[in-house]
Amino acid sequence: MPTKVIAVANQKGGVGKTTTAVNLAACLAALGKNVLLFDLDPQANATSGVGVEKTEGASAYQVLLGEGGLLEKIKPTNFARLEIIPSEVDLCAADLELARLENHLHRLALALQPVRDAQRYDVVLVDCPPSLGILSLNAFAACDGILVPLQCEYYALEGISMMNRVIDQLRAAGVNPRLEILGVVMTMFDGRTRLSQEVVGEVRHLLGAKVFETLIPRTTRLAEAPSHGKPILYYDKYSSGSAAYEVLAQEFLVRLEI
Asked: 62: domain CATH number?
Protein backbone atom coordinates (compact mmCIF):
# COMPACT_ATOMS: atom_id res chain seq x y z
CA MET A 1 0.00 0.00 0.00
CA PRO A 2 1.32 3.48 -0.81
CA THR A 3 1.92 5.82 2.13
CA LYS A 4 -1.12 7.98 2.91
CA VAL A 5 -0.43 11.59 3.94
CA ILE A 6 -3.21 13.19 5.98
CA ALA A 7 -3.22 16.80 7.15
CA VAL A 8 -4.85 17.42 10.55
CA ALA A 9 -6.08 20.99 10.25
CA ASN A 10 -8.42 23.67 11.51
CA GLN A 11 -7.59 27.37 11.23
CA LYS A 12 -9.17 27.92 14.65
CA GLY A 13 -7.00 27.21 17.70
CA GLY A 14 -8.11 25.29 20.75
CA VAL A 15 -10.27 22.74 18.93
CA GLY A 16 -8.28 19.64 19.84
CA LYS A 17 -6.24 19.56 16.62
CA THR A 18 -2.89 18.57 18.13
CA THR A 19 -4.59 16.32 20.70
CA THR A 20 -6.20 14.48 17.78
CA ALA A 21 -2.98 14.29 15.73
CA VAL A 22 -0.95 12.89 18.65
CA ASN A 23 -3.52 10.43 19.96
CA LEU A 24 -4.70 9.20 16.58
CA ALA A 25 -1.06 8.62 15.58
CA ALA A 26 -0.39 6.62 18.77
CA CYS A 27 -3.55 4.53 18.38
CA LEU A 28 -2.80 3.76 14.72
CA ALA A 29 0.70 2.64 15.75
CA ALA A 30 -0.79 0.47 18.51
CA LEU A 31 -2.97 -1.18 15.84
CA GLY A 32 0.23 -2.26 14.08
CA LYS A 33 0.56 0.53 11.51
CA ASN A 34 3.87 2.33 10.94
CA VAL A 35 3.11 5.99 11.59
CA LEU A 36 5.05 9.21 11.07
CA LEU A 37 3.77 12.21 13.01
CA PHE A 38 4.92 15.38 11.22
CA ASP A 39 4.80 18.44 13.49
CA LEU A 40 4.39 21.42 11.15
CA ASP A 41 3.13 23.78 13.88
CA PRO A 42 5.79 26.20 15.23
CA GLN A 43 4.22 25.83 18.70
CA ALA A 44 5.62 22.27 18.65
CA ASN A 45 2.90 20.88 20.92
CA ALA A 46 2.78 17.56 19.05
CA THR A 47 6.53 17.23 19.58
CA SER A 48 6.31 17.67 23.34
CA GLY A 49 3.07 15.63 23.37
CA VAL A 50 5.04 12.49 22.48
CA GLY A 51 7.86 13.33 24.88
CA VAL A 52 10.40 14.59 22.33
CA GLU A 53 12.59 17.56 23.26
CA LYS A 54 12.39 20.72 21.15
CA THR A 55 15.90 21.16 19.77
CA GLU A 56 17.31 23.85 17.53
CA GLY A 57 17.51 22.85 13.87
CA ALA A 58 15.41 19.70 14.32
CA SER A 59 12.35 20.92 12.38
CA ALA A 60 11.58 20.70 8.65
CA TYR A 61 12.34 24.41 8.20
CA GLN A 62 15.69 24.09 6.36
CA VAL A 63 14.36 21.23 4.23
CA LEU A 64 11.46 23.40 3.08
CA LEU A 65 14.01 26.01 2.03
CA GLY A 66 15.82 23.36 -0.01
CA GLU A 67 18.59 22.20 2.35
CA GLY A 68 18.82 18.51 3.26
CA GLY A 69 16.04 15.94 3.31
CA LEU A 70 13.10 15.03 5.55
CA LEU A 71 14.26 11.44 6.09
CA GLU A 72 17.22 12.83 8.08
CA LYS A 73 14.82 14.78 10.34
CA ILE A 74 12.86 11.74 11.53
CA LYS A 75 13.26 10.91 15.22
CA PRO A 76 12.10 7.88 17.20
CA THR A 77 9.59 8.21 20.04
CA ASN A 78 9.21 5.99 23.11
CA PHE A 79 6.19 4.37 21.46
CA ALA A 80 6.39 1.37 19.12
CA ARG A 81 5.97 2.07 15.39
CA LEU A 82 5.53 5.82 16.00
CA GLU A 83 8.19 8.23 14.71
CA ILE A 84 8.17 12.01 14.44
CA ILE A 85 9.52 14.93 12.47
CA PRO A 86 9.69 17.43 15.35
CA SER A 87 8.95 21.13 15.25
CA GLU A 88 10.51 24.13 16.93
CA VAL A 89 10.16 27.88 16.86
CA ASP A 90 12.20 28.43 13.67
CA LEU A 91 9.15 27.32 11.65
CA CYS A 92 7.60 30.69 12.55
CA ALA A 93 9.76 32.24 9.83
CA ALA A 94 8.63 29.74 7.20
CA ASP A 95 5.52 31.65 6.12
CA LEU A 96 7.66 34.67 5.20
CA GLU A 97 10.58 32.75 3.70
CA LEU A 98 8.53 30.32 1.62
CA ALA A 99 6.48 33.11 0.05
CA ARG A 100 9.65 34.34 -1.70
CA LEU A 101 10.53 30.99 -3.24
CA GLU A 102 9.36 29.53 -6.53
CA ASN A 103 6.90 26.64 -6.21
CA HIS A 104 6.17 28.04 -2.74
CA LEU A 105 3.01 25.93 -2.30
CA HIS A 106 4.71 22.69 -3.36
CA ARG A 107 7.79 22.76 -1.12
CA LEU A 108 6.35 20.24 1.31
CA ALA A 109 5.04 17.92 -1.40
CA LEU A 110 8.53 17.80 -2.95
CA ALA A 111 10.16 17.25 0.44
CA LEU A 112 7.72 14.44 1.31
CA GLN A 113 8.28 12.51 -1.92
CA PRO A 114 11.36 10.60 -0.63
CA VAL A 115 9.36 9.68 2.49
CA ARG A 116 6.56 8.31 0.29
CA ASP A 117 9.09 6.51 -1.93
CA ALA A 118 10.77 4.86 1.08
CA GLN A 119 7.44 3.15 1.93
CA ARG A 120 8.42 2.93 5.60
CA TYR A 121 5.07 4.29 6.79
CA ASP A 122 1.45 3.39 6.32
CA VAL A 123 0.32 6.86 7.40
CA VAL A 124 1.93 10.28 7.75
CA LEU A 125 -0.16 12.61 9.96
CA VAL A 126 0.75 16.28 9.52
CA ASP A 127 -0.18 18.51 12.48
CA CYS A 128 -0.81 21.88 10.80
CA PRO A 129 -0.61 25.34 12.41
CA PRO A 130 -3.94 26.88 13.56
CA SER A 131 -4.11 29.16 10.51
CA LEU A 132 -4.46 28.96 6.74
CA GLY A 133 -0.99 30.35 6.10
CA ILE A 134 1.64 29.00 3.73
CA LEU A 135 2.61 26.07 5.98
CA SER A 136 -0.97 24.78 6.10
CA LEU A 137 -1.42 25.37 2.35
CA ASN A 138 1.78 23.37 1.73
CA ALA A 139 0.31 20.54 3.79
CA PHE A 140 -2.91 20.70 1.76
CA ALA A 141 -0.92 20.61 -1.49
CA ALA A 142 1.01 17.54 -0.29
CA CYS A 143 -1.72 15.47 1.35
CA ASP A 144 -4.19 12.79 0.29
CA GLY A 145 -6.92 14.20 2.51
CA ILE A 146 -7.65 16.56 5.41
CA LEU A 147 -8.88 15.49 8.83
CA VAL A 148 -10.74 18.37 10.48
CA PRO A 149 -11.24 18.36 14.28
CA LEU A 150 -14.31 20.42 15.19
CA GLN A 151 -15.07 21.52 18.73
CA CYS A 152 -18.64 20.98 19.92
CA GLU A 153 -19.54 24.67 20.09
CA TYR A 154 -21.69 27.08 18.09
CA TYR A 155 -18.98 28.56 15.87
CA ALA A 156 -17.73 25.15 14.80
CA LEU A 157 -19.20 25.27 11.28
CA GLU A 158 -17.70 28.63 10.36
CA GLY A 159 -14.29 27.00 10.11
CA ILE A 160 -15.52 24.29 7.77
CA SER A 161 -16.99 26.75 5.25
CA MET A 162 -13.70 28.64 5.07
CA MET A 163 -11.77 25.37 4.75
CA ASN A 164 -14.03 24.30 1.89
CA ARG A 165 -13.40 27.59 0.07
CA VAL A 166 -9.64 27.12 0.34
CA ILE A 167 -9.89 23.49 -0.84
CA ASP A 168 -11.97 24.57 -3.87
CA GLN A 169 -9.40 27.26 -4.72
CA LEU A 170 -6.45 24.85 -4.44
CA ARG A 171 -8.25 22.29 -6.60
CA ALA A 172 -9.28 24.86 -9.21
CA ALA A 173 -5.73 26.22 -9.41
CA GLY A 174 -4.38 22.71 -9.99
CA VAL A 175 -2.32 22.84 -6.77
CA ASN A 176 -3.80 19.51 -5.60
CA PRO A 177 -6.65 18.30 -7.82
CA ARG A 178 -7.43 15.31 -5.55
CA LEU A 179 -7.70 17.39 -2.36
CA GLU A 180 -10.73 16.71 -0.17
CA ILE A 181 -11.82 16.49 3.44
CA LEU A 182 -11.31 12.88 4.52
CA GLY A 183 -13.46 13.39 7.58
CA VAL A 184 -14.58 15.63 10.42
CA VAL A 185 -14.08 14.53 14.03
CA MET A 186 -16.14 16.16 16.77
CA THR A 187 -13.99 16.98 19.81
CA MET A 188 -14.60 18.18 23.39
CA PHE A 189 -18.00 16.54 23.41
CA ASP A 190 -19.90 16.82 26.69
CA GLY A 191 -22.92 14.50 26.60
CA ARG A 192 -24.43 16.25 29.64
CA THR A 193 -25.03 19.50 27.75
CA ARG A 194 -27.72 20.21 25.21
CA LEU A 195 -25.24 22.43 23.31
CA SER A 196 -22.88 19.56 22.50
CA GLN A 197 -25.76 17.36 21.33
CA GLU A 198 -27.24 20.15 19.17
CA VAL A 199 -23.92 21.01 17.54
CA VAL A 200 -23.20 17.37 16.68
CA GLY A 201 -26.71 17.04 15.23
CA GLU A 202 -26.28 20.18 13.13
CA VAL A 203 -22.85 19.16 11.84
CA ARG A 204 -24.09 15.68 10.95
CA HIS A 205 -27.11 17.19 9.18
CA LEU A 206 -24.90 19.47 7.05
CA LEU A 207 -21.90 17.22 6.42
CA GLY A 208 -23.47 13.76 6.55
CA ALA A 209 -21.07 10.85 6.13
CA LYS A 210 -18.03 13.16 6.31
CA VAL A 211 -18.48 13.19 10.10
CA PHE A 212 -16.86 10.32 11.99
CA GLU A 213 -19.21 8.32 14.22
CA THR A 214 -16.72 8.53 17.08
CA LEU A 215 -17.10 11.52 19.41
CA ILE A 216 -14.06 12.66 21.39
CA PRO A 217 -15.11 13.53 24.95
CA ARG A 218 -13.97 16.55 26.95
CA THR A 219 -11.93 14.95 29.76
CA THR A 220 -9.35 16.01 32.32
CA ARG A 221 -7.14 13.00 31.52
CA LEU A 222 -6.89 13.99 27.84
CA ALA A 223 -5.87 17.50 28.92
CA GLU A 224 -3.26 16.18 31.36
CA ALA A 225 -1.53 13.66 29.07
CA PRO A 226 0.58 16.14 27.00
CA SER A 227 2.27 17.55 30.12
CA HIS A 228 3.57 14.01 30.76
CA GLY A 229 4.81 13.66 27.17
CA LYS A 230 2.49 10.72 26.51
CA PRO A 231 -0.49 10.05 24.25
CA ILE A 232 -3.61 9.19 26.27
CA LEU A 233 -3.27 5.49 25.33
CA TYR A 234 -0.05 5.35 27.38
CA TYR A 235 -1.04 7.86 30.05
CA ASP A 236 -4.41 6.36 30.99
CA LYS A 237 -5.28 3.41 28.76
CA TYR A 238 -8.66 2.79 30.43
CA SER A 239 -9.95 6.37 30.25
CA SER A 240 -12.88 7.40 28.06
CA GLY A 241 -10.52 9.58 25.99
CA SER A 242 -8.25 6.65 25.21
CA ALA A 243 -11.22 4.46 24.27
CA ALA A 244 -12.55 7.16 21.94
CA TYR A 245 -9.25 7.59 20.08
CA GLU A 246 -8.82 3.81 19.78
CA VAL A 247 -12.25 3.56 18.11
CA LEU A 248 -11.50 6.62 15.94
CA ALA A 249 -8.28 4.97 14.74
CA GLN A 250 -10.23 1.91 13.56
CA GLU A 251 -12.81 4.09 11.83
CA PHE A 252 -10.01 6.14 10.25
CA LEU A 253 -8.35 3.03 8.79
CA VAL A 254 -11.64 1.92 7.24
CA ARG A 255 -11.93 5.32 5.53
CA LEU A 256 -8.38 5.10 4.25
CA GLU A 257 -9.05 1.53 3.13
CA ILE A 258 -5.93 0.32 4.90
From this structure: 3.40.50.300
Domain of 203, in residue numbers: 4-256
Q: 0.85 exceeded by the pTM?
A: yes
pLDDT at position 159 over 80 = no
Q: Which amino acid is at 149?
A: P
- Show contacts of 194-201: CB within 8 Å, 24+ apart: 195/152, 195/153, 195/154, 196/152, 199/152, 199/153, 199/154, 199/156, 200/152
The count of structural domains within the chain is 1
Q: What is the pLDDT of residue 74?
A: 98
Q: Distance between CA 102 and CA 91 in Å, rounded? A: 18
Annotate 146-160 with b (16+ C-beta within 10 A) or e (fewer). bbbbbbbeeebbebb
Per-residue pLDDT of 100-118, as tens digits, reads: 998 999 999 999 999 999 9
Output DSSP code: residue 51. Answer: T
Q: How many angstroms separate the CA atoms of 190 and 83, rounded?
A: 32
- Average pLDDT score, the chain: 95
